[in-house]
Design the sequence.
């Protein structure tokens, strides 16, 4: 199939970016990123700089890839990162607009690649259980209700791709932050640090140029792991309790 | 090159305990005076960084990713083994040790494997305490499953995302130490060389992938947790960025490279679809617990799978290996799939595939049970192939997946370069010639959490570590070599893209040093690879400049190193005149087509020493002894 691509090109964080149009021929069996690989291979062969985009595992688990396709983070498929999107979605003559995540918290580094280190800083603020290596009790000494273990796993399946931020009209990182808090706060092991964790993570999130959550729910819709906004409610609840406890 | 394994004396179940007592300690007040560089933030690198920092060392952790959480450990699906015996089905540390030595086809060091089995239980304790949401039974205790050729249920798992959860646990422990200031994290920073001063590893040279800045980082010791080299095959289940550069640069500075020909070809991957393909996708081998593998009994059968009646199907693994059936170890499952395709019984458009069929399991257990077990995998399969595995059997084919070979290390995980350690998949230590399922995660975290943090103290406490200045001649020399290599790559202005070289190399390695190897093919590869390498340096094209993000340049450096490694892989495969584990030499097989080991002549580790760019590497051998698990013909009949 013949496609017309409009791809965001931007030389660096402070450079002015613009859409550049490319035409390419794709097979329906290709993944979306393989289609871009072919475009890049052609550009390189012509001596032109290829489109910079980040992707690694191409199995939808590492969270490295991410781009907005025709206005939707990771493109049109549900539960799918862009590396797993396949070209049978598209037809001959289609036009596709490809942009980076757009959010103050994620500055563009080049073309479609953004800096997501803010997520690491949110985790560093409290997204862990403090346990020194070697100091743990026997694993079965801490029973966990099966249903809580499952809910915790649902939240823990976040891949840190940033689609939630890209989808949010406020560019809020609330779904990401809440998912990490929920993963840990749902487990007995996470209780001792529960409220301090919530305060510290929220404080850091707010300091990182992300917007505020106003319950649009666009994040849930865009999340390739279908993390539910229930976790945001849980974080808000814990945050209120934490404020009371702190006072 | 001297290969001293430093395996402690005494009975095998007391070696590690005794060794921990015999090793020198660094006292708590002195630990902060030492600086350790850890390269890589996967399971091994992140867990080592976190633990060393908890102990009080200053740690710098380097990753080329935008976040440490992206490391490829994240993609491991199936699970992690431990000898907990929570199922009461007869498991023990000795059994896990025994299975791993046997599974490795008697080509691993017994003492290392025993230690791995021993610390496996502590790993599970540690991970649960970190909040890793392992699968649980309704009573709240941990669930286990049987995995990849084991006859006990010893595998702990978090859905099909066990690697992700373990890595996030290690990542979070790492970020906790970053927050405290005990670890300095370098994102998007790629190691391009190791700095040796007076023969000791004292630092690394890196290139910052965003600014292009090339810098020296000095320390008292360096640990490489930089993963495996499956991408030498171009198409593998490894992530796009996985590469051998860190390990290869260490090799070029004097670290021995062990058993490079031991590569694992995973039996259950989605077959190649076209020549634009960028990577292969693994389907967890847990699928083999319920799926049945078959091909048509007829050659060139073009019927749809549903049109092939039961009596015309060959469930060849069940037929050939009745005791293990579809659960035979990976090397056997892969090789038999290749045999079927070689006989013209392959399925799908390319005829390079076999069926993995869930029809019986769905009838027996119901589609909902199968969905609960494998739902995410089925969905991934459908997304990639457009076929629904609830209705049509999956098509699978083997793909390069893991490399057992790697930097040679002694019992302390130190390479032949003093102060340079290799952990996780980057080293060769525990899996022999074949790795069992759910053992990679175990080894990565064992090295990082429970081995290196002890053994590195023994070195730091005794080594003479004089202060090194940045203007030291050896430091400057290494920096200049890196700079000149980058400039040489940037100057490449030929006719061929970097990818085209990588693809061509991958094809040579896959055809000649893949699932089946023979002297003729290996010799042919050994002629082709240097020619291709020469063409690379004459005719490759690198666009763009060095002062900002340049993914072509990054790839070029990595492909250049694969072009060197591949030659040593083939050489290693050529001199190992036997079949063992993942290394199958077609000349050395039993009349039934099984691997034939030659214990008399090859019960050793082959270690290659770099001797220069234009000279052949020197071969060394570390003899292996089997005191506790006497070598037998591996049989899964």
Sequence:
């Amino acid at each position: 199939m013949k496609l017309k691509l409009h791809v965001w090109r931007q030389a660096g964080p402070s450079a002015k970016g613009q859409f550049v149009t490319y035409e390419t021929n794709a097979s329906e069996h290709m993944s979306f990123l393989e289609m871009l690989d072919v475009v890049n291979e052609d550009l390189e062969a012509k001596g032109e700089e290829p489109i910079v985009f980040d992707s690694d595992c191409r199995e939808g688990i590492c969270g490295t890839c991410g781009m907005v396709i025709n206005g939707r983070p990771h493109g049109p498929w549900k539960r799918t990162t862009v590396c797993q999107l396949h070209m049978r979605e598209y037809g001959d003559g289609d036009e596709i607009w490809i942009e980076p995540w757009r959010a103050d918290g994620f500055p563009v580094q080049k073309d479609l690649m953004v800096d997501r280190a803010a997520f690491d800083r949110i985790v560093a603020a409290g997204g862990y259980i403090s346990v020194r290596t070697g100091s743990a009790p026997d694993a079965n000494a801490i029973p966990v209700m099966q249903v809580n273990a499952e809910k915790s796993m649902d939240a823990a399946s976040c891949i840190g791709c940033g689609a939630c931020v890209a989808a949010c009209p406020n560019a809020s990182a609330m779904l990401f932050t809440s998912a990490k808090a929920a993963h840990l706060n749902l487990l007995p092991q996470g209780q001792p640090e529960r409220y301090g964790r919530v305060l510290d993570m929220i404080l850091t999130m707010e300091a990182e140029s992300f917007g505020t959550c106003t319950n649009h729910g666009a994040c849930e819709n865009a999340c390739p792991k279908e993390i539910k906004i229930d976790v945001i409610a849980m974080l808000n609840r814990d945050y209120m309790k934490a404020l009371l406890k702190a006072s | 090159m001297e290969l001293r394994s430093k395996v402690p004396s005494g009975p095998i179940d007391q070696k590690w305990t005794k060794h921990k007592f015999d090793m020198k300690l660094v006292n708590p007040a002195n630990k902060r005076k030492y600086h350790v560089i850890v390269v890589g933030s996967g399971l091994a690198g992140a867990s080592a960084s976190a633990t060393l920092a908890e102990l009080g060392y200053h740690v710098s952790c380097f990753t080329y990713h935008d976040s440490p959480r992206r490391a490829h450990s994240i993609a491991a699906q199936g699970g992690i083994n431990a000898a907990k015996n929570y199922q009461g089905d007869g498991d023990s540390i000795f059994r896990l040790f025994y299975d791993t030595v046997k599974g490795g086809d008697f080509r691993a060091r017994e003492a290392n494997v025993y230690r791995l089995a021993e610390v496996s239980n502590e790993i599970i304790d540690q991970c649960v305490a970190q909040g890793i949401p392992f699968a649980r039974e309704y009573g709240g205790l941990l669930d286990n499953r049987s995995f990849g050729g084991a006859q006990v249920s010893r595998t702990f798992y978090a859905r099909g995302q066990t690697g992700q959860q373990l890595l996030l646990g290690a990542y979070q422990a790492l970020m906790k130490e970053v927050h405290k200031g005990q670890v300095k994290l370098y994102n998007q920073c790629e190691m391009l060389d190791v700095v040796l001063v007076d023969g000791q590893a004292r630092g690394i040279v890196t290139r910052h992938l965003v600014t292009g800045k090339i810098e020296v980082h000095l320390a008292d010791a360096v640990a490489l947790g930089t993963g495996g080299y499956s991408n030498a095959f171009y198409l593998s289940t490894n992530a796009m960025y996985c590469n051998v550069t860190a390990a290869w640069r260490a090799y070029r500075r004097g670290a021995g490279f062990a058993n490079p020909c031991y590569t694992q070809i995973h039996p259950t991957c989605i077959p190649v679809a076209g020549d634009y393909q960028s990577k292969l996708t693994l389907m967890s081998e847990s699928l083999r617990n319920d799926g049945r593998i078959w091909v048509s009994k007829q050659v060139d059968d073009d019927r749809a799978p549903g049109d092939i009646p039961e009596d015309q199907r060959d469930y060849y693994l069940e037929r050939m290996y009745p005791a293990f059936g579809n659960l035979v170890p990976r090397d056997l499952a892969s090789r038999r799939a290749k045999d079927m395709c070689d006989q013209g019984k392959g399925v799908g458009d390319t005829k390079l595939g076999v069926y993995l069929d869930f029809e019986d399991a769905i009838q027996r257990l119901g589609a909902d049970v199968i969905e609960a077990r494998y739902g995410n995998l089925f969905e991934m399969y459908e997304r990639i192939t457009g076929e629904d595995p609830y209705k049509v059997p999956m098509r699978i084919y083997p793909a390069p997946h893991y490399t057992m070979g790697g930097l040679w290390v002694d019992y302390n995980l130190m390479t032949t370069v003093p102060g340079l350690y290799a952990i996780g998949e980057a080293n060769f230590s525990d899996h022999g010639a074949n790795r069992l399922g759910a053992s990679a995660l175990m080894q990565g975290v064992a090295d990082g959490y429970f081995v290196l943090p002890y053994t590195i103290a023994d070195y730091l406490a005794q080594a003479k570590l004089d202060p090194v200045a940045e203007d030291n001649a050896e430091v400057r020399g290494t920096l200049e070599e890196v700079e000149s290599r980058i400039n040489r790559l940037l100057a490449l202005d030929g006719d061929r893209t970097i990818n085209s070289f990588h693809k061509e190399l991958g094809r040579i390695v896959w055809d000649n040093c893949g699932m089946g190897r023979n002297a003729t093919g290996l010799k042919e590869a050994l002629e082709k690879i240097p020619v291709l390498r020469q063409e690379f340096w004459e005719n490759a094209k690198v666009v763009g400049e060095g002062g900002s993000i340049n993914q072509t340049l990054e790839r070029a450096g990595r492909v250049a190193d694969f072009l060197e490694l591949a030659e040593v892989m083939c050489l290693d495969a050529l001199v190992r005149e036997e079949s063992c584990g993942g290394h199958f030499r077609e000349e050395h097989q039993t009349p039934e087509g099984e691997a034939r080991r030659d214990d008399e002549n090859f019960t050793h580790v082959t270690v290659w020493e770099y001797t220069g760019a234009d000279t052949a590497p020197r071969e060394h051998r570390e003899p292996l002894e089997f005191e506790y698990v006497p070598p037998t013909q591996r049989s899964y009949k």
